[in-house]
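User: Okay, second chain of the day. Same drill as before: sequence in, structure tokens out.
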Amino acid sequence: MINLDFSAAVALYAGCVLIILLIFWLADKKQKESNHSLDDKFIWFCSICSYTYINTKEEVISTCPRCGSYNKRN
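Assistant: Same drill. Structure tokens below.
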């Protein structure tokens, strides 16, 4: 049987938990970085209120979410 001090057991347990959390955090961070791809055609600029927004559904005319005005792609 392995003799282990109580404080050493707590430190070992805490270290294992921290390593597991670090592995999950790094995997999640890598997954989020791979999903970041935004094309310039999805970024719109409102000519009325100067609000910059993202709209992936419209191709020619888009409605500003802030002021409701229509914006046309140049």
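Strands lie at 43-45, 52-54, 61-63, 70-72.

User: Thanks, on to the next one.
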